[in-house]
Amino acid sequence: MLPNLPAFLLLVSVAVRGMIVIIILIVAVRLLGKRDVGGLNIIDIIAILLVGNAVQNTLTYGSGRLDIGLVSSAVLLLTEAAIVVLVARHPNLERDVIGQPTVIFSDGYMDRRAMKEQGIEEDELLEAVRAMGLNDLSQVHLAVLEENGSISVIPKEK
Q1: pLDDT computed for residue 32 by the predictor
Q2: Distance in angstroms (rounded) separating the CA atoms of residues 74 and 48
């Protein structure tokens, strides 16, 4: 139900709610660890759809009004763009918001603590190794979980 506010204040309220929601979602996604879109499973996709629906209702007060939907969408996009600019201008902030590469395997040592923190299973590491045309971890010098959730594998020199 829409609050009983003048039209301008209603749209300002929707804008503020939009900024709060996107900041909370970015923090939540950051806390959940790195994972690329290709690594999403059906549960992840269902969760994204449900969050999208919940956020839509929160942002628009459950209203189907076009002006409220447009303001909500614009605020989400502009807030995301502002965060991108802020992160680009402040590299230390980028590490906190976007993340940084994480070494998960180095010269025969699998860093299980780092893998657990990032939500990476051994099977995912082995899959990345095989994708590089290698047979097993004995052929790997270094494996790094990148900011985008992909795993880079550097083979040992022959």
Answers
A1: 65
A2: 20
Count CB-CB contacts under 10 A for residue 13: 16
Backbone angles phi, psi at 155, to 5 degrees: -70, 160
**pLDDT tens column, 50-86:** 777 777 777 777 776 777 777 877 787 788 788 878 8
Structure tokens at 119: 């939500």
Name the pTM for this structure. Answer: 0.59
Count CA atoms within 13 Å of residue 72 on its CB side: 20
The reply to whether 139 and 84 lie within a common domain is no
CATH number of domain containing 111: 3.30.240.20
Q: How far apart are the first and last CA of the chain?
A: 67
